[in-house]
Specification:
It is built from eight helices and twelve strands. It has about 220 residues and is α/β, with parallel strands linked by helices. The chain has two domains: about 120 residues, Rossmann fold (3-Layer(aba) Sandwich); about 90 residues, Orthogonal Bundle (Arc Repressor Mutant, subunit A), CATH 1.10.10.10. The mean pLDDT is about 90. Bound molecules: calcium ion.
Length: about 220
């Protein structure tokens, strides 16, 4: 069955353009013209992915993103206008998985959607990755520190999985971008710092630091010294 995409966008021209194009690509598409309707639609017809405009009347995209994220780990791709770019990390803070700046190229949008679906797909053979007292179940996507369960968002999971598959190896920012986000941010983004901060907050609550900064290079998963 085709994946269901929910488009939450108040500009009818853009919403209809997205709907037509995505249907043509074989997706099932629902459109909501404001945030509340979008949330209601997501509840009644759970989507496989959400395309969410930042500037919406009433509930804005950021708030919609927070509420969607509180209810599920559906991949969320945010659309932002060019002059809102400095705020984009706020979207990621709110739980968005990716964002695209308007005006965007439709092929670029499709590539981002495919990447999000690829990453959301359950891995074929679940395994338990371990390092020190930290474990990650690739089947359930749940992490554990000792006996304590840690809830992760989709992006946090991918980042932690990358670290756990490469213990004690310094991972450069370029490699992390490539593996976790699947494309180049142009080197000016602090998105990795933001996500490492989240992961540290969640994992260090219950034990010593495991994700260490290698200044000017990247990060490494290793024991605290
Ligand atoms: Ca808008």
């Amino acid at each position: 069955m085709a994946e269901r995409i929910l488009v939450i966008e108040d500009e009818e021209r853009i919403a209809q353009f997205l709907k037509r194009g995505l249907i043509y690509e074989g997706y099932r598409v629902d459109v909501a013209y404001d945030g509340q309707v979008g949330l209601d639609t997501a509840r009644d017809q759970p989507p496989d992915l959400v395309i969410l405009d930042w500037m919406l009347p009433g509930l804005d995209g950021l708030e919609v993103c927070r509420r969607l994220r509180a209810a599920s780990d559906v991949p969320i791709l945010m659309l932002t206008a060019k002059d809102e770019v400095p705020d984009r990390v706020m979207g990621l803070d709110a739980g968005a998985d990716d964002y695209l700046i308007k005006p965007f190229d439709f092929d670029e949008l499709l590539a981002r959607i495919r990447a999000l679906f690829r990453r959301a797909a359950p891995s074929s053979k679940p395994e338990i990755l371990r390092f020190a007292d930290l474990t990650l179940d690739t089947g359930t996507h749940r992490a554990q520190r000792g006996e304590i369960f840690i809830d992760l968002t989709a992006k946090e999971y991918e980042l932690l999985e990358l670290f756990l598959r490469n213990p004690r190896r310094v991972l450069t920012r370029e490699l992390i971008f490539d593996r976790v986000w699947g494309y180049d941010f142009g080197g000016e983004s602090n998105i990795i710092e933001v996500y490492v901060r989240y992961l540290r907050q969640k994992t260090e609550e219950h034990g010593p630091r495991l994700i260490h900064t290698v200044r000017g290079v990247g990060y490494v998963l290793r024991e605290d010294e």
